[in-house]
Recover the amino acids of this structure.
């Protein structure tokens, strides 16, 4: 009897579930683009030491859980940590999941979800340091932390502490091990992953309260509500705790807040163990070489981006520079003034600010460029100003008598420039232009601030993961030199050809 | 008609075959009237009148700074003058103070298409070999093919005695060779008048004659030539007409015999006595 009533219900619910699944399969799952900085370090978001082309970390797991809960597919978008919020406002991604503490000043800029992770600040000191156990003990000492983190304010509030701000966790803990600073105050997960090894120890004290939230654009209320619902569900079913336990960063604060005091672990800290193993303190030089070999494809990919970026930017910079030089030399006065103002303004202001302006500033007036286009534009506009001055000097180095001789033969100014003056100036400007290209090649590393992943960025990510700033640094520097060399040779060859007419002996 | 051939059409004067035969069929007189020119507040030409008939060889003499080089440069529009008119055939370059002038550069370019100019410091194009120097303007300005331009260039190299130097760069040649090359380069544009601005002043004394030799040759062929020079012997032997200038004005014009032997103006007499010393 009971079965007779229940059976149709079960069948109906199954049919319903099946049709829902069919609908979901019919349209490809929507993409949840989320931003983070893979150079930040473990355990947040970092390159898998075993397979550097993979990005892993507890926040990658959280993002994937959230996306699955929303019926979406998570897609990671790399950006510099300082720029995560501007990038979110630009619309490069729809959420930020990367250790963003929920603070009042950030809340003025973006919406925050309910916390997905809670923790506190922890102190790390050298193993042989015995005189520090609380924040007050740091008086008269040097303490390091990440720039802009809550810990920085905590340290500043302690009084008498010399605060040193760092960009990455690896450098921060490296400097502590080297004795450049006396203590590190950082979010507990970072301490778990970096305050280890033969030289460092973590202190048991818990300072302050930190809550990480998912940052979402203001006005995106629908996504915010969905994310909050998903977080609540993931807390309730223990899936979040599972992630944190796998990474070894579950703590009593969360147990209290999540009302999850289940005494037994839900997962073993596999991810943490894998990390410790891969830190590779025990690796011999042979094994290290193998590790480098694993990095090469990633570095090569970064190098290709660097070369593409530099070549396209330089080509545009050369054309722009020539135009500006001609404007300054032969234009009517308003044209001259325009070119002069451009050159002085662009040359006189930092490339970094120009890149930020193009990428994060222009969207305010409705011009939103892809990272690559913005990077090319920034580099080309900047180097165009430098090239303009090089070409102006090059053209002026050609005696005016050459222009007169061309005029006397009936040439127009443009014909004289094109066939007589510029070919001669070419020889003069070739070495400085090559110089500028090499400089541009290296300056292209600046575009990592606008989410481009090029050679230097790849280096930063790999080094943050592997701790190997030296070996990777040498490798990356070598790659820059190798990229530049063919262009230097090409320039020498062209110069030699162009100077044929200057040799007294028979050509 | 393609765009390219239309451009060529515009540059190439189909009416006038490219030829090396002087004089041209219709003798044309070059005349300048009331040319005034000021450099940084100093008037260097004070209403100069000047005339050159077809086939004449005229030497302009005078002290340094008398305005003779400036006059020569005004004649083909390399200098912008404030007032006056230069007429050649049916074309005039006219400047009336206070009146809109139109595109001076374009008018000057049309005027100087009739003239060849030779500079004191040769001004060959150092990045081109000798042949390249000769074919550049005919190809760029007239739109001739390389072959057509070379057909003009080779006989001219022969004429100035540089047939064996076609592939040499300017820096590989002596000053005299360079100046002869510069004359050939100007001739490649088939000018009706040749202007020389102190063509031998930058040369070692023993290289002077080879340049004058070419100019004599052109004179015999009937080319109109206007020369600014300090060389007495050349002036005396070759000049049909001598123009003496002082302080921005033409003081006296006459034939060689009269100017050297019987100058009318005392200033001419004083200058010529020094000139011959």
């Amino acid at each position: 009897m009971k079965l007779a009533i229940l059976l149709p219900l079960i069948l109906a619910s199954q049919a319903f579930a099946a049709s829902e699944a069919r609908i979901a399969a019919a349209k490809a799952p929507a993409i949840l683009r989320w931003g983070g900085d893979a150079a930040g370090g473990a355990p947040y978001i970092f390159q898998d030491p075993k397979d550097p082309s993979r990005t892993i970390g507890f926040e990658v797991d959280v993002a994937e859980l959230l996306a699955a809960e929303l019926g979406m597919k998570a897609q990671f978008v790399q950006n510099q940590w300082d720029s995560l919020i501007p990038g979110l406002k630009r619309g490069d991604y729809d959420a930020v999941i990367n250790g963003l503490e929920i603070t009042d000043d950030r809340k003025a800029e973006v919406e925050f979800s309910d916390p997905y992770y809670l923790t506190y600040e922890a102190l790390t000191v050298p193993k042989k340091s015995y005189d520090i156990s609380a924040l007050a003990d740091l008086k008269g000492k040097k303490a390091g932390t990440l720039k802009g983190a809550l810990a920085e304010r905590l340290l500043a509030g302690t009084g008498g502490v010399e605060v040193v701000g760092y960009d990455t966790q690896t450098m921060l803990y490296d400097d502590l091990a080297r004795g450049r600073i006396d203590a590190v105050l950082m979010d507990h997960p970072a301490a778990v992953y970096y305050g280890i090894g033969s030289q460092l120890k973590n202190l048991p004290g818990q300072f302050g309260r930190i809550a990480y939230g998912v940052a979402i654009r203001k006005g995106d209320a629908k996504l915010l509500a969905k994310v909050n619902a998903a977080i609540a569900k993931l807390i309730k079913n223990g899936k979040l705790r599972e992630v944190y336990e796998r990474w070894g960063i579950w703590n009593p604060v969360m147990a209290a807040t999540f009302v999850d005091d289940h005494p037994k672990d839900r997962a073993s800290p596999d991810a943490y163990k894998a990390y410790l193993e891969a830190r590779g303190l025990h690796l011999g030089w042979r094994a290290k070489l193998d590790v480098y070999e694993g990095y090469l494809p990633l570095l090569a990919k970064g190098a290709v981006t660097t070369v593409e970026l530099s070549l396209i930017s330089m080509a545009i910079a050369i054309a722009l520079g020539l135009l500006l030089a001609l404007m300054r030399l032969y234009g009517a006065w308003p044209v001259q003034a325009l070119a002069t103002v451009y050159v002085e303004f662009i040359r006189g202001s930092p490339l970094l600010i120009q890149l930020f302006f193009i990428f994060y500033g222009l969207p305010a007036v409705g011009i939103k460029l892809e990272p690559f286009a913005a990077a090319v534009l920034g580099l080309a506009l900047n180097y165009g100003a430098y090239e303009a001055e090089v070409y102006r000097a090059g053209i002026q180095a050609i005696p005016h008598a050459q222009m007169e001789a061309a005029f006397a033969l009936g040439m127009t100014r443009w014909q004289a420039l094109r066939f007589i003056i510029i070919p001669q100036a070419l020889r003069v400007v070739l070495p400085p232009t090559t110089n500028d290209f090499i400089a541009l090649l290296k300056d292209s590393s600046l575009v990592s601030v606008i989410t481009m992943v090029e050679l230097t960025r790849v280096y930063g990510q790999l080094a943050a993961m592997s701790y190997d700033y030296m070996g990777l640094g040498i490798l990356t520097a070598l790659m820059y030199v190798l990229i530049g060399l063919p262009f230097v040779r090409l320039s020498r060859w062209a110069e030699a050809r162009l100077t044929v007419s200057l040799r007294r002996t028979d050509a | 008609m393609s765009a390219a051939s239309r451009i060529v059409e515009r540059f190439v004067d189909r009416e006038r075959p490219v030829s090396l035969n002087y004089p041209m069929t219709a003798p044309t007189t070059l005349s300048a009237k009331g040319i005034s020119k000021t450099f940084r507040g100093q008037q260097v030409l004070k209403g100069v009148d000047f005339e050159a008939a077809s086939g004449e060889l005229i030497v302009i003499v005078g002290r340094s700074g008398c305005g003779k080089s400036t006059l020569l440069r005004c004649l083909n529009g390399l200098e912008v003058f404030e007032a006056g008119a230069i007429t050649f055939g049916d074309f005039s370059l006219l400047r009336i103070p206070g009146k809109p002038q139109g595109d001076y550069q374009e008018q000057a370019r049309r005027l100087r298409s009739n003239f060849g100019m030779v500079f004191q410091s040769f001004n060959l194009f150092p990045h081109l070999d000798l042949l390249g120097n000769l074919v550049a303007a005919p190809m760029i300005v007239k739109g001739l093919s390389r072959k057509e331009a070379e057909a003009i260039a080779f006989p001219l190299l022969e004429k100035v005695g540089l047939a064996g130097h076609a592939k040499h760069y300017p820096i590989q040649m002596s000053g005299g060779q360079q100046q002869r090359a510069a004359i050939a380069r100007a001739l490649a544009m088939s000018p009706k008048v040749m202007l020389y601005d102190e063509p031998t002043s930058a040369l070692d004394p023993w290289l002077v004659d080879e340049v004058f030799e070419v100019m004599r040759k052109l004179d015999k062929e009937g080319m109109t030539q206007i020369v600014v020079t300090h060389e007495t012997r050349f002036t005396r032997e070759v000049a049909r007409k001598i123009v003496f200038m002082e302080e921005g004005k033409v003081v006296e014009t006459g034939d060689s015999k009269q100017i050297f032997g019987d100058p009318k103006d005392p200033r001419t007499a004083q200058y010529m006595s020094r000139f011959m010393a």
Remarks:
- The longest strand of chain B covers residues 42-52.
- The first helix of chain B runs from residue 3 to 11.
- Chain B touches chain A at residues 76, 78, 105, 109, 112-113, 115-117, 119, 121, 123-129, 136-137, 140-141, 167-172, 185-186, 189 (CB under 8 Å).
